[in-house]
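Me: Here is a favour to ask of a fellow structure person. Could you put it straight underneath, so I can go through it closely?

Assistant:
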Amino acid sequence: MTSSPPASPLGRTGRGDPSSLEVRAAPEPTWTPPASVPTGVPDSLEERVRLALRVVVLLDRWGPPGDNGSARWEATQQGLAESLSVTQGALSKVLSRLTAADVVTSDPRHVRGMARRVRVYSLTRDGEAMARDIRERFGLSSPRPWER
């Protein structure tokens, strides 16, 4: 009885011919997401509504852009996406819906540290009323108590 040499970590049995390669299946990942990570359909209506509410609250916190034509980086699409830990694609859909509903408006403005003007989002009067309703409903404090 002939015994073959043991397999190496690379899957070769030690012989030089290509038929001596072994194909090994990759181990299944054992990581499971924490309970705080939503596991439903990522583009579900509930998640879009939740994201829209979070956008309104954040824009309310940062206030309107300055009169001098400059604005905060956090009020850009990239800044909002980073602050909310979502992709810009998902955020873009929510922002376009909020804009169509006249809750959010956008204007190209200068943002410190950026080479060119970018689209900056802010709340309309309806958006500010919505933010007040959200704060009252969820018991959130006013972001700028001296202005209210």
The chain has a mean pLDDT of 75.
